[in-house]
Design goal:
Blueprint: H1 3-17, H2 22-29, E1 35-39, H3 45-59, E2 67-71, H4 74-87, E3 95-98, H5 99-110, E4 122-123, H6 125-134, H7 144-156, H8 166-169, H9 173-189, E5 192-193, H10 196-207, H11 209-218, E6 221-224, H12 232-241, E7 247-252, H13 267-270, H14 272-275, E8 280-284, E9 286-287, H15 292-302, E10 314-315, E11 324-328, H16 331-347, E12 355-359, H17 365-374, E13 379-381, H18 386-389, H19 391-404, H20 409-419, H21 425-442, H22 449-456, H23 462-487, H24 493-503, H25 506-513, H26 520-530, H27 539-551, H28 560-563, E14 569-573, E15 582-587, H29 602-616, E16 619-628, E17 630-633, E18 636-639, E19 655-658, H30 662-680, H31 698-707, E20 713-716, E21 720-729, E22 739-745, E23 750-753, H32 755-758, E24 762-766
Parallel strand pairs: 1-7, 1-8, 2-3, 2-6, 4-5, 6-7, 9-10, 11-16, 11-19, 12-14, 12-15, 13-14, 15-16
Antiparallel strand pairs: 17-18, 20-21, 20-24, 21-22, 22-23
Helix pairs in contact: 1-3, 2-3, 3-4, 5-10, 10-11, 10-12, 15-29, 16-17, 19-20, 19-26, 19-27, 21-22, 22-23, 23-24, 24-26
The structure holds a DNA duplex.
DNA sequence: CAATTCGGGATCTGC
DNA sequence: TCCCGAATTG
């Protein structure tokens, strides 16, 4: 090798490997045997994978299109692609996809060998349930979703209706036959459900050695991220994709397994070395993200779990402030508390984008949205389903899906029932019967619902006109699409979609129905059309657009265009934060029953705890935890107790604000006394002390002190009239302290309040 | 077949 | 509290 090349190599090495620690470097440059990277939270996992992709391309001469990198979320896939491409532009040609989108692409190409035509669309949970309902199973509307879930679970375990192992999963003898009916109906529709996106590729690969060889030739490297969240079907798929020459590398963390509700099996990661013989393990235990204070809290919590591989995370990050635990009254106060924190930090120069507010359920986002709008804090809600879930958007998508696949019965009947006047259950049943008859006559895929509907038009009275108008407008759209496909107009899909919505009458349908009600529904269909500007006006374009929308809800959301650019607080579910990090994190709703939910025990409870661990380890600099004493559930106000996870915190490792219930104060007191005792008896405990500079919080306090004085009469919406009986500061340190007032209510109870955060919930009646 | 009423259940988490 | 499905009625 020439000197020049040696030098060039050296520079490349330095560029790619220079900033890695020894373990990371080993992981990146590892070759040969299968590799499991056990990567603790914040240990630079994504950096390792992306560097590995760049490394393989530039140093090992692997062509990017021969690299398959699989993730679990679209967000992670996007992140991986952009970071790998930043390291090596060629990485943009690598196949970086979620398991499901990989499966979808595979089925477009190879689905024919399982009798699936390429113009399928993907049924979401609701569509699948609707199909199950239509499949003459005799299930009530009430039972259907539960049975659908079981079917989905079976597919997650790679079990078809005729698999004898199904009985192990569910002893109900009827289940297999319901499952069979559903499957037959689904195949007839020409569509697939989410489970099929994994299950069918496995089946095809098992039954078609030729296809399998193709795939093995195509992918010489397979990387899997978040391996702890893979389910059995995904594991089986992986086994089929990995050929004798394939280099396999999976990355995961058993402590962050949070998707068992959707079939994830931690056992996949625990038994990796058995399933892929000769596999090596590399552990990444150095955390680059969080302060030692945050890491301590996170580790203490997760250490309450059994059944871990066990890792010892350490960090060299500089010390920071103790995580703060705030006991608040209601979710409104909780939202206000967050707003205060964020606003105060903003005034000190910390941008909004530093912040993430985490919650267990999407429904919780509302109080934060309301409050943030009020206090003019810009925010973005991640993973909210709002846009996609809107009735009119679903209906519009059904229409587009139906244009793409005319055997989609769920879409067709949904459209008829909702938009065509005079058509109800009876007419739909007639059309279905006619469809069956035609299928019996002609057989195969040649029959569609349009012809079936047309055939019965003569048998109808008034509804017939509407129905035939609907059918011909759909036919018009279809021929328009076909014409465009032949001409290759170069236009984008957006115009076509507006046209379809117009012609079908869907746009007018909502316009008319919503006169005076602020016609937002008609508007969101325009938004849907706008979302399609990046897709070409062709059959392929429509197919891609529909697939993208089914598999990536964010893609259909209406606020994505501004998401990256501007300075906003992130509102996000705990599940969605996987793989993300923020300087400042608030984990909200830490109440028993909400987080963890009260029906969780055993392994499910441990998973909740892991979720808590994931949440804590997202934080780089500051971590806040909030717990409310009352919460509105199903509209009524419910009293709550602090989450059990709060009792797993190290009391000397956190700072408590607000008014903790007595049980929690007792817990802290005990723990601290125990610790003191232990220290006294000679154990070497490291005293955790903090000295902070005296800065001007007093100025802020002086107003409060003057306003909220002893003897003042106040009124509270929930507790009624009361009188302030005591005032004090929560600690000695003026900067860290909060001004607290004790209120004695007429109703008998005593409550502590922090006027700084909760002033608005109290009204001063008389000084 | 559409409109109205009534009652029960819900909200996890996501591809 | 609110939404959806089933039942009731015109």
């Amino acid at each position: 090798m020439s000197d020049f090349n040696t030098i060039k190599d050296g520079i490349e090495d330095e560029f790619l490997l220079g900033n890695l620690n020894e373990e990371q470097r080993r992981a990146v440059t590892h070759e040969g045997s299968p590799l499991l990277i056990l990567a603790g939270a914040g240990s630079g996992k994504t950096r390792v994978i992306t560097t590995k992709i760049a490394w393989l391309i530039s140093k090992k001469g692997i062509r990017p299109e021969n690299i398959l990198a699989v993730t679990f979320t679209n967000k992670a896939a996007r992140e991986m692609r952009s970071r790998a491409t930043a390291l090596n532009p060629e990485a943009s040609w690598a196949v970086i996809k979620t398991f499901h989108s990989f499966g979808a692409k595979f089925l477009r190409q190879y689905g024919f060998s399982a009798g699936l035509s390429p113009n399928y669309t993907i049924y979401d949970d609701d569509d699948s349930a609707a199909l199950l309902r239509q499949a003459e199973t005799g299930l009530s509307a009430f039972q259907t979703p539960a049975v659908m879930q079981k079917i989905d679970r079976a597919k997650n375990y790679c079990l078809e209706y005729d698999n004898p192992d199904l009985a192990l999963m569910d002893p109900d003898p009827d289940f297999a036959s319901v499952f069979r009916k559903y499957t037959e109906r689904l195949r007839k529709s020409g569509n697939v459900d989410f489970g099929d996106l994994i299950y069918l590729p496995v089946k095809i690969l098992r039954e078609n050695p030729g296809i399998k060889e193709d795939i093995h030739r195509q992918f010489s490297v397979i990387l899997v991220d978040e391996y702890q969240d893979s389910n059995i079907a995904q594991f089986e798929l992986l086994k089929e994709l990995v050929g004798p020459e394939t280099y396999l590398c999976v990355v995961g963390d058993d402590d962050q397994s949070i998707y068992s509700f959707r079939g994830a099996e931690v056992s996949n990661i625990l038994t990796f070395t058995e399933n892929f013989p000769g596999a090596e393990i590399i552990r990444l235990e150095k955390n680059y993200r969080s302060t030692p204070e945050i890491l301590r809290v996170a580790s203490e919590i997760v250490s309450n779990n059994d059944g871990r591989l066990g890792k010892t995370l350490y960090t060299e990050c500089p010390s920071g402030k103790k995580p703060v635990l705030a006991f608040l009254t209601s979710q409104e106060v909780e939202a206000e508390f967050c707003a205060q924190l964020i606003q105060q930090a903003f005034e000190k120069g910390h941008p909004y984008r530093d912040w993430a507010v985490l919650y267990r359920t999407n429904a919780q986002s509302m109080s934060f949205e309301t409050e943030f709008i009020k206090s003019k804090i810009p925010y973005t809600v991640i993973g909210s389903l709002k846009f996609y879930e809107r009735e009119e958007v679903k209906l519009a998508l059904s229409l587009l899906s139906f244009i793409f696949n005319r055997r989609d019965e769920v879409a067709f009947f949904k459209l008829l029932r909702k938009t065509v006047a005079g058509v109800g259950a009876t007419t739909c049943a007639k059309i279905q019967m006619e469809f069956e008859r035609l299928t019996g006559e002609a057989g195969g895929d040649s029959v569609d619902y349009l012809s079936a509907a047309e055939n019965i038009v003569p048998k109808l009275k008034k509804a017939g006109e509407n129905l035939s108008a609907f059918v011909s407008s759909v036919r018009e759209c279809i021929s328009e699409l076909k014409a465009a496909a032949e001409k290759e107009t170069g236009e984008n899909l957006s115009g076509f979609i507006s046209g379809v919505l117009e012609k079908s009458g869907l746009q007018d349908f909502y316009k008319n129905r919503e006169e005076g009600t602020g016609a937002s529904r008609a508007l969101s269909m325009t938004e849907l059309a706008n979302a399609a500007v990046f897709y070409p006006f062709s059959i392929q374009g429509l197919s891609d657009f529909l697939e993208q929308i089914r598999l990536d809800r964010e893609a259909a959301s209406d606020n994505r265009e501004t998401e990256e650019i501007s300075d906003r607080v992130t509102l996000i579910t705990l599940h969605n934060t996987k793989g993300l990090e923020f300087k400042r994190v608030v984990i909200t709703g830490l109440e028993e029953g909400l987080f963890p939910r009260d029906d969780k025990t055993g392994e499910a409870l441990e998973e909740e705890r892991r979720l808590m661990y994931v949440g804590c380890t997202r934080a780089m600099k500051r971590l806040y935890l909030t717990s409310c004493s009352v919460r509105r559930i199903y509209g009524s106000i419910q009293p709550g107790r602090p989450s059990r996870f709060l009792y797993e915190l190290p009391p000397d490792g956190i700072k408590v604000l607000g008014s903790p219930p007595s049980s929690f104060s007792a817990f802290c007191k005990n723990a601290i006394e125990e610790k003191a005792l232990a220290e006294k008896s000679g154990r070497t405990g490291v005293p955790l002390e903090e000295k902070s500079a005296v800065t001007g919080k007093e100025g802020l306090h002086s107003d409060l002190v003057l306003k909220w004085k002893k003897g003042v009469t106040v009124f509270h919406d929930d507790y009624g009239y009361g009188i302030i009986t005591k005032t004090y500061f929560s600690g000695d340190d003026p900067d860290e302290s909060e001004y607290v007032i004790l209120v004695h209510f007429e109703s008998g109870g005593e409550k502590k309040f922090m006027p700084e955060y909760q002033g608005h919930t109290l009204m001063i009646v008389k000084d």
